[in-house]
Amino acid sequence: MWRENTVDFKLARFYEMSTRVVLTFLIVTILLAILAGVGCTLYDLRLVFEEEFHAAFKQIMVDLLTVLAVIEVLRTALAYSTEGRVKVTYIIDTVIVTVLTEVMAFWYKDIEWQEVAMTIALVLSLAFTRIVAVRFSPAAARREL
């Protein structure tokens, strides 16, 4: 019995350390992606002088929203590394930012009203899910006790 617990403890410890190593590499990769995204956004500022304003600002807006989506992924990874669990609200925030990037692209496309309606329904359902996740989170339940 004592030997079993030692093996279980060692396996749990190995899993925890492996997860931390992989998560550290993931966080470094995400930080490099954010730096590359910021660099790409700064580079795309030249489009303001080279192309039509709407096209230039569309590209810059998409770049910025993409960087924000990657920042949300970083928040999720950092929350997992500190709390040992993934917060649903961070994932929902990431999806909302990504969907908003698509909404920004809608301004410059000819799209059907059904696509707009589906996008609005998606954003509303994500907002509702986020509200429910915040209201019924484990942290909120602990505070009420």
From TrEMBL:
Protein name: Phosphate-starvation-inducible E-like protein
Gene Ontology terms: cellular component: plasma membrane
Alphabetized UniProt keyword annotations: Cell membrane, Membrane, Transmembrane, Transmembrane helix
Location of the protein in the cell: Cell membrane
Membrane topology: Multi-pass membrane protein
Keyword Metal-binding recorded: no
InterPro entries: P_starv_induced_PsiE-like
Transmembrane residue ranges: 21-45, 57-78, 90-108, 114-133
